[in-house]
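Researcher: Please predict.
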Amino acid sequence: MALFDVPIATLHGEPSSLAQYKGKALLLVNVASKCGLTPQYEGLEKLQETFGDRGFSVLGFPCNQFGGQEPGTPEEIATFCSTTYGVTFPMFEKIDVNGEHRHPIYQELTKTPDAEGNAGDIQWNFEKFLVSPSGEVVARFRPRTDPQDPAVIEAITANLPG
């Protein structure tokens, strides 16, 4: 199943999919509000501001599977992200990214290996996947890779449309 065809709800529960982002470079990230890596929201938002008008978007997927670090309701998550980090990029419903109830989007994403050639389970919050405008997963960055890392920025710029 193509990533663009998988149904998923927005953070506020409206039915959606990634189809509306076809033609853009995307950075899909499993996020959490109470994690040591939560300050990465700042770098993710900076990517959104830098490249958003060039056919790029960060997409956030809250997940509570790692140390219970995303316990909030959709409203609490939205408020935290906007007031603490000024997040403007789209956020989707809280999902599982590993295990028996792994969301179909992450079933596809986790097939992609990282720079060391390792595919499989998400290691922790803030694992990042770069998807090309055609829907191909072209890069995987592990949680400790900062969103402003030169390798991330280089991969994004190489995949911007047009």
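Model: The chain is about 25% helix and 20% strand.
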